[in-house]
Amino acid sequence: MQRGFSALILLILIAVLAAIGVFYIKSFLDLSISMNYPSPFVVKKEQNTLKTYTNNTFGFEFNYPKNLEAKVDSEENYSKRNNGEVRKNFAGYVGYQPGGFLAAVSVIDNSSKTPFEDSPFSLWVFDNPNNLDESAWFNKYWYYPFNWGQFESSEKIKIAPSLDATIGGQLARYGVVSYSPGKPKFIYLNEQALSSGNKDGKMYLFRVLTDPNQIGDQILSSFKFLNNPKNYICPKPEFTNCFTDKNNPTKNQCSDDYLKWAKANCPAVVNNAAN
To answer: Is residue 38 part of a domain?
Structure first.
């Protein structure tokens, strides 16, 4: 009887120890899981490393690192930094005025001795009432105000905007000036006048420096027009085929939302399903 009672006590003791062991093992696993996965606070902190610059006058915005500053610029300030009157110099050398200046902004590091020259991302906006395309604008103005004055065609063609890009959902062209500090990419984007005629055309000039961290490229990739939050792209060629059959289901570019946007922003677009 005593031997049976002792065996029962031993079984109970083993069961208690096993339960305690399971509890501690589960607690350890839970701790490991919580350590291996980021908390919502970490994700939120990551998002807060960026700031957004918004220009409501011209309807665009972009994100940039929180440790930098988006600084509004002007032709006057650019001239002061370069000890000369850049517009007057261009007109005197080339024989005609450069494109009409509208706005400029650069993302700068205030710790730099030459923050604008070292800016990873700069954007200048010019008036383009004649809706010159990117190549025609470059042929006339080069990359004013940053780089201009090469009259020899063999040299000019080396830096011409001959490569395709998509910026803010719109087609653009760019060239690289590899002999300048930072090997800048210059991207031209022609924002044409609306078909309704209530908005002048504009030419956007982006200057993006080459750097190992690709800060300028990351800023550029976040650029978008406020009237195009979905980054729609004007069709090229300017013809939208919206006829559908079982082998050709309805495409995104044939949605009512897209067609409404294209009608307002792509003057040359023809939609064969419009009637």
So the answer is: no
